[in-house]
Amino acid sequence: MKIYLSSTYRDLKDHRSMLALAMRKAQYDVMMMEEYVARDQLVEFACQGDVVSCDAYVGLFAWRYGHIPEDNNPAGRSVTEMEYTSAEDKITRLVFILKDEAEWPAELKDDDLTRIKEFRKNLKKTCAAYFADNAQLVGEVLAALRTVECTRIARPLDAIEVIKQAQDFGPSYLMNIKEKLNAFGEADFVELQLGPTPWWNTRLHLVAALAEEINPHVQVVFVDAERKYIIMAPPAEIRQRLEQKWPNLQRAYSEFRKEAPGIDSIEDNLWRYPMAVEASFGGQEEKVKTVLTSRQLGTDLGIRNHAERVEVENIGQVFLQREIVRRESPFVALVRNGRLEGLVDTNQLARKVAGAALAQILNG
After folding, report:
1. Burial letters for 115-144: b for 16+ Cβ neighbours within 10 Å, e otherwise?
2. Which secondary structure element, helix H or strand E, spans residue 267, and what is its range?
């Protein structure tokens, strides 16, 4: 795993050196600006380009805002802020901030703290952990990186949106649906958003049934319109709970599959599904369907949550790591202000924690 280590230099030189050594001992590939000597490109632009070439960004922040290039910099941002911004939405971004109350030499602070105070305020919204000394920083960063290595992201699939939004299946909705359905077979986690377009129970059952056939090991992750986490479960369990609540759903799907016995024939026969629903429920799908709510999925249907939620804000990475490995669910949903950030494989993280502890004992 390749890490970009970012910070102002003079004030955090010792922290950078110790952290880089610890990360390399843990088998991480570390890139930092000390290695930019004699490069032809301007440092600030070389830094930004190299940030996105890495797998994760680790940013350290104390009380200096950093060098502000004069040329080609209309926003007047420091190189350190440029690096931080470059990582946004491109690679994993981990921010570590010196505690407000930590002792810090006055000569290592800006004379005018206006810019760094403003920057720190913004950084605290996504801060991974706070530190007061080198040892605490190293512990927090290594814990964060172990968690990142075990974190997966659930993404929406086009096929799900086709099934969800189509009021009537017709030629315009059939284009490439087979290819879109096949994407289920390549996914470990699939995100389903409950809103703003509503989910009908009939359509969710169809998705769950098809997903179970194509890839029974996929995990379906439900979020609401604001991407706040609701629940995660495999398609078989979702299908079973829906059929317990509405038995006619199983009958409708069976009728539909009589006309489309193989996955390869789904594309040509998807338009028949609303007709199968009508035959099984005794009315048009739009009239007999039930619009599902977050509460129904989260509690009323009795779906077992396969990813317990853990709030990540302001708890520190060492504490977060302990919280994750003690959970009994196979995965943990990391949420910040309720919004899903990722899904951690608890068993994989536990093995990494145990391996790190063993290595520390052996290296003694």
Report:
1. bbeebbeebeebbbbbbeeeebbbbbbbbb
2. helix 266-269
Domains and CATH numbers, the chain: 2-149 (3.40.50.10140), 158-305 (no CATH), 309-363 (no CATH)
Give 150-159 pLDDT, tens digit per residue: 999 988 776 6
Are 73 and 85 in contact, with CB atoms under 8 Å apart?
no
Task: Report the distance separating Cα 364 and Cα 358, nearest Å.
Answer: 10
CA–chain centroid gap for 117, Å, is 28
Distance CA 78, CA 86 (A): 12
- The confidence band for 289, taking pLDDT boundaries of 50, 70 and 90, is very high
Q: Give the 3-state secondary structure of residue 331.
A: strand
Q: How far apart are CA 69 and CA 50, in angstroms?
A: 18
Q: What is the pTM of this model?
A: 0.85
Computed on alpha carbons and rounded to an integer, the radius of gyration of the chain in Å comes to 25
